[in-house]
Specification:
- The chain has 732 residues and is of the alpha+beta class.
- It has 30 helices and 20 strands.
- The strands form six sheets. Strands 1-2-5-4-3 form a five-stranded mixed beta sheet. It has a four-stranded mixed beta sheet with strand order 12-14-13-15, with no helix packed on it. Strands 18-19-17-20 form a four-stranded antiparallel beta sheet.
């Protein structure tokens, strides 16, 4: 036997003692022969990759056919080995798996190809779910070795992983794969946020571990006394999971991290409920936090009892109670199907439905037939663990899971898109109810639909629907029907908001400025930005605020207005006007001219600078790389040479941007740190994004620019702050 294969064989024997390992040895030999001479970006022989993928799958308990296909998954695409040869050597099943993975590999991700990509994924999944399982293991090993790729490739692959592959792993119940994919992608995409959470975790770990050990010992003792055989352990904390919960629950790091979670593994379903009773006898449960996913499993076969109790010291403790078979499924999901193929019995007569009956897979197949919009399909993949569910019934008795707070409209769209579009009324438990009524677990819902050909959703529904599917469908309907109207409405709304503030409309709504903003907000072009405003996806005021920020605040906008006014020669009253501060800059050939440092880029000594003669405001000094300078250069007769000449009483404006994971008292901690360093704050703006990131911008006066380094270092030390840097008005 090839010694390279010994670790793989050892893992396979643990889950499949009777497996025919000769197939794997043959598959490895064929793959090694055809990949000979090929290298990975790391410099390793290429065969190390398929071997690593097969090892990941073996640890999940996958069958021999899947492992053989994993060893061969790149041969057809990357070598001269043909599909016909592979089918002759290994049979139709392994050939079909390799062919499925090859087709997925050939599909490129990106806006244009995404619809086709997701369709092919769904079709591949429907034929044999193992194709996707292999693809996930392939992506996991690629993410582990991602550091060898160039930065743009790392970012692209990491974004795909977070947006497509991790949600797919979650849908398949493969949580070990999902968690590792998320953490690896998170560390690549947002290294500073990842590092800050990692630092905060390591600081609190010792104190938290002591408390966790105390809880585990007490639970173990109680279960022993009740004669329940159980394993009690702490639940691992995953950095991306912590970050997502901070966003979803809108709470600080401490509230998430200090919530202790433990897991209780027992032998039978009967023991699960007995353990629950024993734990509730010691500690009071938190009302509304008990979930029975054993009686009603989640969409991805997940089964467990969830409860939260008030533990020692009055701190909440989250518990998951499950059988060992349920635990294996919770960790490995659909990959565990083959391990328990003969007898997927979780004890106490609870049989788990076979994989082919997974309702969500049938649902995805239906959805991909309905629409060509890839965004909607991806939205259906994303399933936020922190969102509670309600379970309601159709008149036929079928169960439909919806987000907590869902309405009959959400239910209608969950049944079918057309049912949602044509919904005009609802009956819940036999009584007519308004469409915005909240549904509760156990409700039976009946939808009334309109037969009119012009029937369609109401824009008001967007105010109360809870499910991403319903919201996407309603928006999609309005997008198709009224895009042109929305573009005009959005343009008018932005213009109106700017006129209301007296801002320079023509200057600020220039093509370049708006296009840059549209790209920042993830819209492909300016029309898409206008349409988004017109459809109510983003407020016109928000767009105006961001435009104002891009030119350095209101002062910057007014300054731009002044600078684009009629050219004038330097006047005497400009020269001898009283100056509020010594700017530390002199104009070549005329040292008495009134000079002011521009607010849009806040230059300080050491920056390369240029002067611009303004109307009634003396000479405005900009950094040479200021975004506004490009337009100022069109009026060359107004440009003047300026040089730094700071004195002891010179005062400079500095703008810094602070990026942090949001939490209570963050702003007060940052401002206190600035004041501790004797910084006089002139203006501050704070925005908090939906992904729980607080971006603060401070403008302050400073005598010695060398002091700035100490200030930045001090602010970086504030808890939650992962980046702080000096900015120009346009952002960097």
């Amino acid at each position: 036997m090839n010694p390279v294969l010994e670790p793989l064989f050892k893992t396979v024997r643990a889950t499949h003692p009777k497996a025919d390992l000769r197939i794997l040895e043959h598959a490895y030999d064929v793959a090694a022969y055809h990949h000979r001479g090929q290298k990975r970006k790391s410099g390793d022989p290429y065969i190390t990759h398929p071997l690593a993928v097969a090892t990941i799958l073996a640890e999940l308990g996958s069958d021999v056919e899947t492992l053989a296909a994993a060893l061969l998954h790149d041969t057809i695409e990357d070598t001269a080995y043909s599909l016909e040869e592979l089918r002759a050597d290994f049979g139709p099943t392994i050939a079909a798996l390799v062919d499925g993975v090859t087709k997925l590999d050939k599909v490129k991700f990106g806006d244009a190809a995404q619809a086709e990509t997701v369709r092919k994924m769904v079709v591949a999944m429907s034929r044999d779910i193992r194709v996707l399982v292999i693809k996930l293991a392939d992506r996991l090993h690629n993410m582990r070795t991602m550091r060898y790729l160039p930065p743009h490739k790392r970012e692209q692959k990491s974004r795909e992983t977070l947006e497509i592959f991790a949600p797919l792993a979650h849908r398949l119940g493969m949580n070990t794969i999902k968690w590792e994919l998320e953490d690896l992608a998170f560390s690549m995409l947002y290294p500073k946020r990842y590092a800050e959470i990692s630092r905060m975790v390591s600081e609190r770990a010792p104190r938290r571990d002591l408390y966790l050990q105390e809880v585990i010992e007490k639970v173990s003792a109680d279960l022993r006394e009740a004669k329940i055989k159980a394993t009690v352990m702490g639940r691992p904390k995953h950095y991306y999971s912590i970050y997502q919960k901070m966003i979803a629950r809108n709470v600080s790091f401490d509230e998430i991290y200090d919530l202790v979670g433990i897991r209780v593994l027992v032998d039978t379903v009967r023991d699960c409920y007995a353990a629950l009773g024993t734990i509730h006898a010691r500690w009071n449960p938190v009302p509304g936090r008990f979930k029975d996913y054993i009686a009603m499993p989640k969409f991805n076969m997940y089964q467990s009892l969830h409860t939260t109790v008030i533990g020692p010291g009055g701190k909440p403790v989250e518990l998951q109670i499950r059988t060992r078979a349920m635990h294996h499924r919770a960790e490995y999901g659909v990959a565990a199907h083959w391990k328990y193929k003969e007898e997927m019995n979780s004890g106490g007569g609870q049989k788990v439905k076979p994989v082919t009956d997974m309702a969500w897979l049938r649902q995805l197949l239906d959805w991909q037939k309905e629409t060509s919009d890839p965004g909607e399909f991806l939205e259906s993949l994303r399933f936020d663990l922190s969102v509670s569910e309600v379970y309601v019934f159709t008149p036929r008795g079928d169960v439909i899971a919806l987000p907590e707070g869902a309405t009959p409209v959400d239910f209608a769209y969950a049944v079918h898109t057309e049912v949602g579009h044509r919904c005009i009324g609802a009956r819940v438990n036999g009584r007519l109810v308004p469409l915005e009524s909240r549904l509760n677990t156990g409700d039976t819902v009946e939808i009334f639909t309109s037969k009119s050909p012009d029937a369609g959703p109401s824009r008001d529904w967007l105010k109360f629907v809870k499910s991403g599917r319903a919201r996407n469908k309603i928006r999609q309907w309005f997008s198709k029907e009224r895009r042109e109207t929305a573009i005009e409405a959005g343009k008018e709304a932005i213009g109106r908001a700017m006129r209301k503030q007296g801002l320079p409309l023509q200057r600020m709504m220039s093509g370049e400025t708006l296009l840059a903003l549209a790209r920042d907000l993830r819209y492909p072009d300016v029309s898409a930005l206008y349409a988004a405003v017109g459809e109510g996806h983003i407020a016109a005021q928000t767009v105006v605020q961001k435009l104002v920020q891009s030119v350095g605040g209101v002062e910057g906008a007014e300054e731009d207005l002044a600078e684009t006014s009629v050219p004038t020669r330097l006047r005497k009253r400009d020269r001898f006007r009283e100056r509020p501060h010594n700017a530390g800059v002199v104009v070549a050939g005329d040292p008495d001219v009134w000079v002011r440092l521009s607010r849009c880029c806040t230059p300080v000594p050491g920056d390369e600078i240029i002067g611009f003669v303004t109307r009634g405001h003396g000479v405005s000094v900009h950094r040479t790389n200021c975004p506004n300078v490009q337009q100022l250069k069109e009026q060359k007769d107004r440009l003047v040479e300026v040089t730094w000449c700071p004195t002891e009483d010179s005062v400079f404006l500095v703008a810094i941007q602070v990026e942090a994971l949001d939490r209570p008292r963050l702003l007060s901690d940052v401002t206190r740190t600035l004041s501790d360093h004797h910084v006089n704050i002139l203006s501050a703006s704070v925005t908090t994004s939906r992904d729980r990131v607080a971006i603060s911008r401070f403008t302050f006066e400073m005598g010695d620019p060398k002091h700035l380094g100490h200030v930045l270092k001090a602010v970086r030390g504030v808890q939650g702050v992962y980046d702080v840097y000096r900015v120009s008005g346009a952002g960097s």
